[in-house]
C-alpha cells in the first residue's frame, strides 16, 4: 500500500511479498465468492493450511522464486450477504477498522510485469490515506508487528503536507467509533519516544548508529504526535 499511496517517495518503502484483498460482504453473493475463488485458482494460487490464505510461487527475472500470499479480509462486524450459490469453504479475516476503507476509496493505476513476464497496466482500488492509517493502527494494536508502525510512519512522513495533511483528511471522520479507537491506539503506542510505536519503527529500520536509532524513534514520535494534535485528539505538548 505505501508505495501506491505515496509513489516515488525516497527512500523507497521496503515493500511486501503478501497481498491483502479487502472484500465488501454486503455487496457480494455466494456466487460471486465462488467466482472469485475460481479466478484466483485459475491463476495458479492454491489454498494453504489457513482457510483465508492462498499462495503462489512466482519466478523472478533473476531466477529466484518467491512465495506470494493473498489474504482475504472483510470488515469486522459486517454481516455477509446471503443468497445465490454458497461458497462453504470460503473464509476471510475479520479486520478491525476496515469499514472506513470500504467506504473511502481511490483508484490507482499500476504498471509492471506479471508473473508470466508480460507487461500490463491495471487499475486497483485502494483505501484513501485516512482509511489506511485507521486500518494500520488497528493492526498495530492487534499483532504488535514492527512493520505496521513503520508503514504508518512512512505514509505520514511522505504524504504531501505530512502530519497536518493526514490530520485534515481524518478530521471529517471524527466521531466514528473505529476512527476514535484508531486515534486512541496511536496515542497509546506513540505516547513517548520510548513507547512501542517509535521503538518499533527504529527496530524495523535498524540503523547501526545508536544516535541515529534514537533520532528515528524521536522523529516517529513527533510526527504521530503532530497528527494527533492537528486532528484535535490530544493537546499540544510543551517541549522540555
Radius of gyration using CA atoms only: 19 Å
- Strand-residue fraction? 15-25%
Q: Count up the helices.
A: 9
What is the helix content? Answer: 40-55%
Order of helices and strands: HEHEEEEHEEHHHHHH
Task: Characterize the main sheet.
Answer: 5 strands, mixed
Q: What's the domain count?
A: 2
Q: What's the total number of strands? A: 7
N→C terminal distance: 36 Å
Which residues form runs of ≥5 with pLDDT under 50? none
Form type: globular
Structural class: alpha/beta
Overall pLDDT, averaged? 90
Outline the structure in words.
With 240 residues, the protein is an alpha/beta fold. The radius of gyration is 19 Å and the shape is globular. It starts with a helix and ends in a 10-residue tail after the last helix. It is built from nine helices and seven strands. It folds into two domains: 2-127, no CATH class; 129-230. The mean pLDDT is 90. A hairpin with a 5-residue loop joins strand 3 and strand 4 (65-75).
Amino acid at each position: 500500500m505505501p508505495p501506491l499511496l505515496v509513489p516515488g517517495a525516497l527512500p523507497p518503502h521496503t515493500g511486501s511479498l503478501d497481498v491483502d484483498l479487502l472484500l465488501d460482504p454486503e455487496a457480494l453473493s455466494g456466487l460471486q465468492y465462488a467466482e472469485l475463488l475460481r479466478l484466483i485458482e485459475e491463476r495458479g494460487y492454491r489454498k494453504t493450511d489457513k482457510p483465508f490464505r492462498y499462495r503462489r510461487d512466482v519466478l523472478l527475472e533473476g531466477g529466484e522464486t518467491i512465495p506470494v500470499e493473498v489474504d482475504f479480509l472483510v470488515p469486522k462486524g459486517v454481516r455477509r450477504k446471503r443468497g445465490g450459490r454458497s461458497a462453504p469453504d470460503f473464509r476471510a479475516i475479520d479486520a478491525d477498522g476496515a469499514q472506513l476503507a470500504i467506504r473511502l476509496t481511490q483508484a490507482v493505476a499500476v504498471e509492471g510485469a506479471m508473473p508470466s513476464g508480460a507487461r500490463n497496466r491495471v487499475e486497483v482500488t485502494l483505501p484513501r490515506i485516512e482509511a489506511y492509517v485507521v486500518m494500520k493502527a488497528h493492526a498495530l494494536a492487534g499483532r504488535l508487528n514492527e512493520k505496521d508502525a513503520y508503514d504508518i510512519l512512512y505514509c505520514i512522513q511522505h504524504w504531501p503536507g505530512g502530519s497536518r495533511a493526514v490530520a485534515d483528511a481524518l478530521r471529517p471522520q471524527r466521531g466514528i467509533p473505529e476512527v476514535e479507537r484508531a486515534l486512541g491506539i496511536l496515542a497509546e503506542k506513540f505516547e513517548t519516544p520510548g513507547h512501542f510505536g517509535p521503538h518499533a519503527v527504529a527496530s524495523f529500520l535498524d540503523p547501526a548508529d545508536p544516535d541515529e536509532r534514537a533520532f528515528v524513534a524521536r522523529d516517529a514520535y513527533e510526527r504521530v504526535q503532530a497528527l494527533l494534535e492537528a486532528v484535535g485528539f490530544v493537546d499540544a505538548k510543551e517541549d522540555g
